[in-house]
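Convert to structure. Protein one:
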Amino acid sequence: MEKNWAGNVTYRATEIHHPATLADLRSTIAKSRQIRALGTRHSFNELANTGGELVSLARMPKFVEFDTGAPSVKVSADLRYSQFVEDLDKKGFALPNLASLPHISVAGAIATATHGSGSGNGSLSTSVAGLEIVTADGSSVTLNRGDDDFDGAVVNLGALGVVTSVTLDLVPAFEIRQYVHEGLPLAADILGVLDGAYSVSLFTDWSGDTINQVWVKQRTQDPEFIPDGTTPADGPRHPIPGMATENCTQQLGVPGRFFERLPHFRPEFTPSAGEELQTEFMVARNDAVAALQAINEIREHIHPVLQISEIRAIKADQLWLSPYYQRDTVSIHFTWIADGTVVMPVISMVSERLAEFDARPHWAKIFDIAPEVLQSRYERLQDFDDLARRLDPAGKFRNEFVAEILSPR
C-alpha cells in the first residue's frame, strides 16, 4: 500500500494516475469524480488523502524558464527545490529563502505555506508571482499577482485544482555563512536572536531552560552575529544529537551559495532522523515569548516523546490561508517520535497551551484543533471557500480534511 514519506498515512485512493502530458492530466481530472494531487508525500496528516483518485505529476515534462527582465522563473509545479536552485545560481539569481528540506516540491510547499526562517523573510509562498491550475472541468486557469483571486489561490490546500506551473520571483544570487552556537538561555532575548541574522533557527529538546543550538545563517557581506551567552560549536552539528552531521549543510562559517546553506539538510542525503511525526504552531511575534513560556511549563510531558523542537521567525503576508496572514510570526515546531499513541495526547496538550495565543497550525502537519476554532483564526476562510466553490462547484478536490476546515456543502 502507498504511504506518505513518514509512513504514518496510508493512501486510500482507488487509483493513482501518472499522466505524461498536460492533455492527459486535463482528461484525467475531467473524468474523475473525486481526485487529489500527490506530490513528494511530505504531509504528516490526511491533507493529500482521498477515497477517490490521486494524480501524480512525476511523469509530466519538466521545465525551468527564466525571465531575466522580471526577474522570475517559471517551473513545473512538481519539481523539488533541489532540482532547479543550482540553475538559478548559475544564472546569477536566487530565491529569497528555502525550507529546511530541499526535497519538497514547489506546488506542495506553496499550497501549505511551508517556510524557512528570518524575521525579514516571508514563507516560500510569498515568492509566487503566478500559477497555472487545471480545474475541475479539465480547463486551465492562470492567476498572477494582482488578480482578484490570487491571494486566495496560492496557499490552496489542493482544494482548487492541480497546479501545473509556478512562477517565482528572483533576487540576485548571494552567499551564506552558517554557524552553530550552543547553550542559549531560554530567558534570553529570543526575538533579538531571531532578528540577528538573515536566517536563524533555534533547536531545543525541552529538557531544561536552555536552547541547545542556535543555527545562524548570515549573508557573507553582513557582520558576524554571535548570540550573547552562547558558545560556538567546535564542529559540525545535527539538530538531533547523535545523528550523522554529514546529512547537514556545511557549518563553521564556510561560505556557500544560497542553496547550499539556507536548507538545514543536503538533498543527496536522507533529510532527518527516519520515521517521525511533526507538528508546528504559529503565533504572533508579540506573543512568542509568552507562548514559549507556556510550552516550557509542560516540558516534562514533551521531552520524553520528542526528537527535537525548532523555533523560527516568518514575516507577515496577505495570503488568505497563510498562517502568517497579516501578522509577523514565530513558529514552534516539534519533531516527535513515530508513536502516535503517546504523541497525540501531548500534541493536544500543546494545542491547549497555545489556544490563548490563537495559534495557527502548519497545514501539512499533525494538529488537534476543532474546525470551528480553526475557522475563527483565519479571517479569509469564507472567502477561500467561495473561491473553491466557483472553481470546483461539485467538490471534486474537496477531501475529508478540507471539508472539515471549510463550511459543509
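Protein two, convert as well:
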Amino acid sequence: MKVALLQLHPLDDADSADPGWLAPIARNLGNLGVDVLVLPELILPGYNRPDAHRDLSQSLSGRWVQQISSIARDANLAITFGWAERAGDQVYNAASFIGADGAIRGHYRKIQLFGPMERQSFQHGSDDPPVFEYRGHRIGMLVCYDIEFPEHARSLARHGAEILVVPTANPVGYDHVQEYLIPARASENAVNIIYANYIGPDGDMAFGGGSVIVGPDGRPLASAGRSPAILIADLPKRTDFADDTLSTQLGELRA
C-alpha cells in the first residue's frame, strides 16, 4: 500500500473552515498512485483555536465530511483527517478515514485529551479505537497523545491492525515522541505507523514538525524535518519474523 502524509503550517481562518484547498494536493497524490493520505489533528477548524472548536464544530453528516468525501472520490484515494465533531451537546476531538469511494470507513474520538485547552474544548471519547479493512489491509486509528499510551496501540494490534493512522498536533519540545515513541510503538506491535504533524507557530504555541512514516521494524520509511512536507512511502508487510514475534508477545500477555 502506498501512503502519504501532509505536514503543513497551521491554516489561516479561511482555509481551516473550508477544506477546498486540499483538492489539488489530493488529486496530484492520487495520480501518483497513493492509496491513503493522512492529515494532522484538528485540521478543521484548526488545533489552537478553542474559540472555534464549539462554534464551528460539525456533525458526521455535515459539510466538512461531505467535502472531504467528494475530494477523496475525485482523487481516488482515502483521506484521514482530524476535526471537531459535534454530537448533540458534546464536541469531540475526532478523526475520520474516508475511502476513495467517499464512504466513511473508520471514525474515532480521541480518548487521551492533552492539556487544559483540549479538556475544556472537548469531551473524552469513550469508544475503543476502530480497526477496519481497506484495500486488503487492516487499519487502526488513534489521535496524537493516544499513541503515547502503549495499551492503545497494543489493543489495535491484537485486533489485527497492521497500519495505524495517527493525525497529530505535537508541539515544540516533544520531539521524543517522533524520535523514540513512534518507532517503539511500531516495533513492539509489528505495525506501520503514519504520524502526521504540523510545523510552525499557531497563536501562542508552536509545532515541531518531524512527521514520520515508520515500518513494522521501527525504522523510518520517510521523515520530515522542520518545514512543510509531503511524505510518500510504500508500506512493507509484516515479515514472518515480526508476525511470530507479535504472536508470542500477545500469547504471553494473555497467559
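The longest helix spans residues 240-254. The helical segments are 13-17, 22-31, 50-55, 63-75, 115-121, 150-158, 176-189, 240-254.
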